[in-house]
Specification:
mainly alpha; Hydantoin permease; membrane
Length: 462
């Protein structure tokens, strides 16, 4: 009983400054962000996304060049968009949005945001579960699976989800510390695993790697039933797979702790270790799995890593899933908690963790991860454009920033109209012109900027 009380007291003492700027004595240096980004982006998603590029028939040259340019654009977006605003305001995305858009819009946005984050965290819990289930000879999900296919899978997911939720409940400090411990080890396992299996793919020396890569790993030919990915798919996916975090401004909640905006460049540790090296490494592992399993439909990161390098690979999958799910649950908890500041963040995170764990039981989250990641970034993108314009442009145009707070209103219609018009525009591009979801974010951002400026002029003039 005493231990339980002590735990609750510790959780109640966690202060994430949800409704106020971060105090100067709580700001963090480069080390915290280098570890957090490396841990979050060298993570469970990499064991899924890398293989999916193989399944979608990316060629070797398209993969390398697309990832290089796309990741550079992502780092620039984090630094020049998100980090600058985070250091300028020192508040969470949700609190800033409430001042701009009003409580009614923020309530809707937070529910949508938290739900999307829960699904992403759930997919990572599922990734970890594929490794935890190996010793029990648990049937693994197939490429075509949407629903859980056995009770062992559900029990394993709930065990992994409980640990993930507990870490997230202790706030940013624990999330950051966990990432700093796990990240260096994980990236070494990714690299070592890929190097270890290259001889089994026919690579005899450094000079033969590229020819094997083109003929055996990234052949340019998609698997049956999968669409074809080219250079532009890869570039825009690498740039926009974390659109919700940088262009969508979700990482204001993390980067508000930064001492200076240049720490936004620490995202490079995540994208180049995770979204470049780790995607390439996991693609190598999956191509070997396809060859040795003779085209098996099993799509489970745990067995793929275990088949390549044994227990170290399986353990890496478990930790990798946690390092993505932990900060994602943290963000989801903040989104829900901002609806009612009197709620304790750790209690909200506990509830969110339960919802996330239930979602993780459905393997379809993992099988459709590329499309889901692109979709959730697209949905949150218009609000990022609104925040950017509100912070940097509105007052220069003679308009009021933080309009909802200034006028004391519950709903700023300029923001609501911007969100609705932008997403409708993107939907029409997809339905009428057949533009794939991966490419909609860029034109959508400029439409959001234009609509918000016009709507603000009309609204504030009235």
């Amino acid at each position: 009983m005493e231990k339980s009380k002590s735990l609750v007291d510790r959780l109640n003492a966690v202060n994430e400054y949800e409704q106020q700027p971060i105090p100067s004595n709580k700001l963090k240096g480069w080390r915290s962000f280098l570890g957090t980004y490396a841990g979050e982006h060298t993570a469970g998603t990499e064991f899924v996304i890398g293989p999916l590029f193989v399944a979608h028939g990316a060629s070797a040259i398209d993969l390398v060049t697309g990832l290089l340019l796309g990741n550079i654009l992502a780092v620039l977006s984090w630094a020049f968009l998100t980090a600058k605003i985070a250091v300028k305001t020192r508040v969470t995305l949700y609190y800033l949005l409430e001042k701009i858009a009003g409580k009614k819009f923020t309530l809707l946005y937070n529910l949508v945001n938290a739900g999307l984050f829960c699904f992403l965290a759930g997919s990572m819990i599922a990734v970890s579960a594929t490794a935890v289930g190996i010793p029990f000879d648990m049937p693994m999900p197939q490429l075509t699976d949407i629903y859980p296919n056995n009770i062992g899978w559900v029990l394993t997911v709930f065990g992994v989800g409980a640990i993930t939720t507990l870490i997230a409940m202790f706030g940013f400090d624990q999330v950051s510390k966990f990432a700093m411990v796990a990240a260096p080890w994980m990236i070494m396992v990714f690299i070592a695993a890929a190097l270890a299996v290259l001889p089994r793919l026919g690579v005899t020396d450094a000079g033969s790697f590229w020819s094997v890569a083109e003929s055996t790993i990234w052949t340019g030919v998609p698997l049956e039933g999968q669409s074809k990915f080219g250079f532009w798919h890869i570039l825009f996916f690498a740039w926009f797979c974390n659109m919700a975090m940088h262009i969508g401004m979700a990482d204001l909640s993390l980067l508000r702790y930064a001492k200076k905006w240049e720490q936004g460049f620490s995202s490079a540790t995540g994208v180049f270790l995770g979204h470049f090296i780790a995607w390439i490494a996991s693609g190598i592992l999956y191509s070997l799995f396809l060859i040795e399993s003779k085209g098996s439909l099993t799509f489970a990161p745990g067995p793929i890593a275990y088949g390549a390098v044994g227990a170290a690979g399986a353990i890496c999958v478990v930790i990798a899933g946690w390092t993505t799910a932990n900060p994602t649950l943290y963000r989801a908890g903040l989104a829900i908690q901002s609806i009612n500041p009197k709620w304790k963040t750790w209690k909200v995170t506990l509830f969110v963790g339960l919802f996330t764990t239930i979602a993780a039981c459905f393997p379809g989250l993992v099988m459709r991860l590329l499309e889901f990641v692109a979709l959730y970034g697209l949905i949150l993108m218009p609000v990022g454009a609104v925040i950017f314009i509100d912070v940097y442009l509105l007052e220069k145009l003679g308009l009021k920033s933080n309009y909802a707070a200034v006028k004391g209103i519950q709903l700023n219609w300029s923001v609501a109209i911007t969100w609705l018009v932008t997403l409708t525009f993107c939907l029409l591009l997809n339905l009428l012109l057949g533009i794939e979801i991966f490419f909609l974010g860029l034109p959508g951002w400029f439409v959001a900027v234009l609509v918000y400026v016009i709507a603000s002029k009309l609204n504030q003039k009235k």
